[in-house]
């Protein structure tokens, strides 16, 4: 007697919400894998320029790994979870001091002050070579009321407008260029000397010495620079060589500042070597993660590449990252005095 063929009952349809949830888990899983690969690559940042680029993204890896722990936890993927925790430790190691170390400076948004203030103020700003909103950008800059202004990626169209500011900034060094290497240094105060440092690289670092100003105990030295982005082995080596060479020019026996867009985040051993070479400290230490390059207006799309480093001869009172509508960078402002300032 023939038996009827058995049929498998159809599976119940998957709801749209469950399908969406499954897709989200897959995306988070992919994020975690990307972060793990990047973290592993960053271990070789001293050896390969691509690994150096990977090491600049530690903040992003932390966020991606935290997100990936959700699907790995739901699926009880313990091996992936252990890898994620290990990668989190590796990435958080250089970042945690920026939250918990004793701050070098205060982080106050109120930079207002009377004309007789005794602190000095430095502003550094990569204005973006393709930025044509010069007037509005200059309004943003002048609003900070800085004594010293260092601008990067300054194109020739800026020259006449900057020269028109000589009533406010009578001391100027303008090197305006069509490529990314143009710079401008503006000062209210007369300098003792200004040297264009001779390097093998295209951009012109400036080494400026100032006398005692506004009741400060002594003069000080400021080196400003903007090395080219590390897009290739040669440019990466040039960036590192220049920053280390400039840091070594500084003396611990005099108050010194080194500032600019370094095209380098603080999360790598290469940045640590600069601090050691110049006996410097990052003025943003203890103030958290504050990206200065923000082509995408989120923490995921931001990098801290604009720096102001100081030695023990400089007392930092306030630090602040401003905003700009016309550049992918933000201005960085430091209010400082020379340690051991003269009393009234």
Brief digest:
The protein has 344 residues and is of the alpha+beta class. It is 32% helix and 19% strand.
Word description of this protein:
With 344 residues, the chain is α+β, with helices and mostly antiparallel strands. The protein has 2 domains: 78 residues, no CATH class; 240 residues, Endonuclease/exonuclease/phosphatase (Deoxyribonuclease I, Chain A). Helices cover 32% and strands 19% of the residues. It has 9 helices and 12 strands. It has a 6-stranded mixed β-sheet. A hairpin with a 7-residue loop joins strand 3 and strand 4. Helix 3 runs antiparallel to helix 4. The longest helix has 27 residues. The radius of gyration is 25 Å and the shape is elongated. It starts with 15 loop residues before the first helix and ends in a 6-residue tail after the last strand. The mean pLDDT is 87.
The proportion of strand residues reads: 15-25%
Number of individual domains: 2
> Which percent bin holds the helix content?
25-40%
Instruction: Give the biggest beta sheet.
Output: 6 strands, mixed
CATH C-level of the largest domain:
Alpha Beta
Following the backbone from N to C, one meets helices and strands in this order, namely HHHHHEHEHEEEEEHEHEEEE
Strand order of the biggest β-sheet = 3-4-2-1-12-11
- Provide a count of the helices: 9
Question: Could you please say which CATH topology of the largest domain applies here?
Answer: Deoxyribonuclease I, Chain A
Kindly state the number of beta strands. Answer: 12
Identify low-pLDDT runs. none
- Shape, principal axes of CA atoms: elongated
Distance between the termini: 115 Å
CATH-derived architecture of the largest domain: 4-Layer Sandwich
- Secondary-structure class: alpha+beta
Mean pLDDT metric:
87
Question: Over the alpha carbons, how many angstroms does the gyration radius reach?
Answer: 25 Å
